[in-house]
Structures are given as C-alpha cells and as structure tokens.
Amino acid sequence: MASMDVPADRPVAVPAAKAVVAKPTYITWITLAFMTTSSVASLRSAPTMAVYGLACVFLYLVPAIVFLLPQALVAAELASGWSGGVFRWVSEGLSAKWGLLAVWCQFAMTIFYYPTLLAFVASTLAYVFNPDLADNGVYTGVVIVVVFWAGVFLSARGGTGGIAKLASSGLMIGTLIPGAILVILGIVYLLQGNPSAAPMNASHLLPEWTGIASLVLIVNNFLSYSGMEMNAVHVSSLRNPGSEFPKAMFFAVGLVLLIFILPALAISWVIPADQTSLTAGVMQAFSAFFGHFGLTALVPIVAVALVCASAGGMLTWLAGPSKGLLLIARREGYLPPFFQDMNEHEIPVHILATQGIVTTIIAIMYALIPSVSSAYWILSVMTTQVYLIVYLLMFVAAVQLRRKQPEVQRGYVAPALTLLCVVGFLASAAAIIIGFVPPSQFENGSTGAYIALILGGTVLIGLLPPWLFLRLRKPGWKQADVAEATS
Amino acid sequence: MSAAAPTPPEATEHHGLHPWIYWTIGAVVVVLMIIGVITYSAGKDDRVAKQKADQLTQKLEAAGLPVPENQDTITSVLGTDGGAVCDNPLSALGKALLFDQLGQGGSFVGRRPVIIDKRVLQGEALILQTYCPDKYEKYQDQINDLKTDNTIKR
User: Fold this and answer.
1) pTM of the predicted structure, to 2 decimals
2) Rounded to 5°, angle at Cα A364 from A362 and A365
3) What is the distance between the alpha carbons of residues B110 and A390, in angstroms, rounded to a whole number?
C-alpha cells in the first residue's frame, strides 16, 4: 500500500460533476438506532444459531464483548466528533488514501452480499406461494430484479429520511414483532411443562470444544455485529450529533443483542437441532415452530414480514457505503465526475445505478446457475475479509485521532479508548486469520491453495480497485468547493 | 482538520418519499400477506401423513437423534410429500440456500461458512429418505463432500 501515501495532486477549480444544492435532512436518534439495528440484525440467523442451544448465548456474548462493544463505543466517539462516517475518520486519522481504502472495502462487500439476500427473498416468497416456484428461473430472476431495483429507486428518491422510515418499519414488522411472538410462544411452550428440545443446563452453556472447528464457530460469530458503524455516515442528519449518535448506538446494541439471542433460544426450546432443513431455508424452521402451536396460518404472514425486514436492511446498505464513497470521491477527486453525480437528496445515483447493474448480473447468475451458487461461498469469504479491513483501519484511526486531534470536541468520549481499539483490532485480525481456515464446503482441496485463493480474492476485490482509482485519477476530478466544505 | 464537533446547518424537516409511495408499499405488503394466507398450505394431516411421520420418527430414533414431543409438528410441516424440503433440494436456488445456511455470522453482511455439525445435515437426509427417496441419493452425494465436526454439544 505504499502508493497510498503519495500526496494528492493540487485541485483545480473545475466543477467536475453536476452541482446540486442539497437540503440537509433530520432524523431522530431512535430512527437512527432502528436503521442501525435493521442493517445488522434480523431473524434470518435465528434457526441457524438455534441448533447450538444454550451455547448460542455464549456464541453471541463473547463476540459482543470483544468486537461489538469496542466497535460501538469507538464509532460513537468518532461519529460524535466527525461527520461523514468511516471515510472521514480514517482520512483524518491516517490519510485520505487510507480513507478511500476503508470506504471502498465497505462498499465492495455489499456488491456480493445482495445476491444472497435476494435469493433468500425469492425462496421465502416461493415457500409461501408455491414452493415449485423456487425451481423456476423466470420467477427467481423477476423477484431479484424487482426487489433490488425497487430498493435502488427508493434509496435514490427517499433520501436519508425516506430510507430511515422504511428501514424502521421493516425492522418493526419483520423483526421486532415476529421476534416477540417467537419468544412469547417459546415461553408458553416451557410453561406448558414441555421439556426443552435443547438441554438448558449449565453444562451446555459453552459450545462443544473440538479444536479448530469450534474456534471457527466462535470467531466467525464476531461477524454477526458487522455494520454497526455503517450508518454513522448519516450522523449529520441528527439535530445534535454529539449527544444523539452515542444514544442511538447504545440503544441499537441492546436491540441487536435481544434480537440475536432470544428468538434463537426460543426456537431451540421447541425444534430439535437436526430437524431444520437447510435447503428449505429459514421458513421451514418457522413452520415447524408455529406448527407445534397449531398456528400455521402465521407462517405466510411471518414470511412476508421477514422479506420486509430484509428489504429494509438492504435499503440501509444501499444508502450507507455508497454515500461514503461519494463523499470521498468528491472531496479528493478519486472517482471520475460521472460517479460524483448526486441528486437533490444527496444520493449518488450513478454509483447506485452502476452497482445495481453489476449486482443484478451477479445475483441472477447466483440464483440460476448451479455451479455459481455452489462456488459463491468463496466470494462471501473473500468479501468478509475485505470488510474486516475497514475495522482494522477504524481502530487504528481512532487511536491516531485521540493523539493528533485532541482539541476536537467529541459529544461522547469512549472510556479506555486505546484498550478498546487494541481489543477490537485483535478481534478483527483474529476474524481475518480464521477466514483462511477451509470450511465445510472445502473438503478435498489443499489448504495452501485455499489460503492463496482467499488472499488473491481479497487483494483483487479490496485492494486493487482503490489502487487503480489512485493511479488513474485526474486533477480535474477533485471538486474544490467540496474539499473546502469538508475540511 | 476538524476544529469542532459538526454543527448541523440550517435544515428543514425531511419527509422522505411521497406519501403515496409509503401507502403503495404498505398495500403491497398487506396484499402479499393475504395471498400468502390463501395460498399457503400446511402439510396434509391425514392417515398417510401420520404414517410417514411415524417412519421418520423411527429413523430419527435409530440414528440417535431427538424426536419432537408432538408428532403433529412433523405432519403439519412435512405432510405426505415432505413439503418444501422435497421441492427443490438440488435446484440452483436450493443449492444456494444450502450453502448460505452452512454459513454463520451476520444476518446481512459478514456471513461466511463454518465447519458444521453432521447432525444438522442428517435430519434433512432422513426427511428426504422418508418422503422423497428419489432425491435422497443425490442430496447424500452432495453432503458427503462436506467436511463436518461435532460442534453441537450432545
């Protein structure tokens, strides 16, 4: 990354992109907390984690201590001092080039995550309306295109305020209410005198220790909390960012923990670990759960609600990283003027549209071509490695900012920041290292080849594009007025 | 360099999208739920379904796996034909979902595969064997290639 440290060219005062006077928008801190929660937590992982029974509490709490807490507290301090999100923190703490790397890594991750989300949406709807549809390529393609482009349209037209409303509604309808129903029914199940399907005694508090597989399981769960920092890009939409962002963050932390732990536990009380079908997806576990109570009529309602939560989460991811990329592209001139264009809601429409075309192609291949879907998990591993780079940079930048810019007034000052950053950095680094351990799908290949593949992919997706942006940029791409305004 | 905490500029309250868009989205959600309630069919709860549920229970017990307290749970989900489990276990989308479900981590971003417990795959294999044996062999071939470990405490 040596080239990252080359000084930027002097800006020229040429308006590179269409000038738009954006009207700032306000949202409440509770709305931002809901947005953050909807970007991170949903019930989609509940059946997968329920198979671990009581140990799922451990599997969520340990990562919460070593990864979620440092991430949340550090992001709270940074967002209460600097607007703009991760690109701004890393740019100020390290350099603008590192800021570009951070925001690119955040953005690149999302391109490869949408296909899995859209496939989940298509299969969940098929489960309810007609399971045979899941075999129908036209149906899958239509659902992917309609849902994704509706998301792009709403992101482009809604601005932060519109996205916040839809994401909050999705969280309420698709996560909080069904989650509460699951937990209440689970408690009723136990109160009726039924034995829990998963043992709930002290000896089952810790997961089974089998060496590397258990380590992978524990460390991989750090990633459950990925994205808590992402919505900090909207911090300037709060009336009092300094005091309100930390409140939003702490509220979101509480919600995320409740959403992850309680519904998974409730499912583990009712459904034995071996009776969840992986190919029939999450809905099969919900059907079995509601079937036990004779409430199968709830299944289609919950399915549509889960789709709403997924779509709401998708909106926040469409709006967040692309906005960060736009901000640094305009301030530093790292992207051609075409990609710096934004509409009256400050939404980078050309970045979104380009991302949309790429995502549509990948998503359709993923859902329709068996060889692509079989190999897609490799991309998930690579892009997760790429995303973890964001955290490494964020924790280093936070320490640097305390040292270099102590005079900047922070609405919230994280206690023991250096310790938090060290813990968070080590947790992120551990998650990167564990990413090189071959998972279930990689049975017969060589470990060396697997490591080389993941490493190569990480460089190709995460490091090569920002390096090319820096190499190919032209002085005229930098917008002098934006640089002034944000410095 | 920032000299002070960000101060929001003069701004007006933002209402996001036009109200008709919210109403349209709400209406689509409600219509989908209604269609879902009408079209969704839980498994048939007849004599054949009960026989199949008994067969599955015996197979689960023989494999040393726990069985549900209430047999109705099996009949309502799997019916006579295995329901969604038998519908598309090996289609592109089914494969995509299988590999996605083998992952763990984030609900949105940050999800990646782990080394899973054999029990999680065994239950589904027994369901296929009981309800749609024609699809069992191919599924078994597929999961035979997966590396597993005992990560769930017995």
Assistant:
1) 0.87
2) 65
3) 12
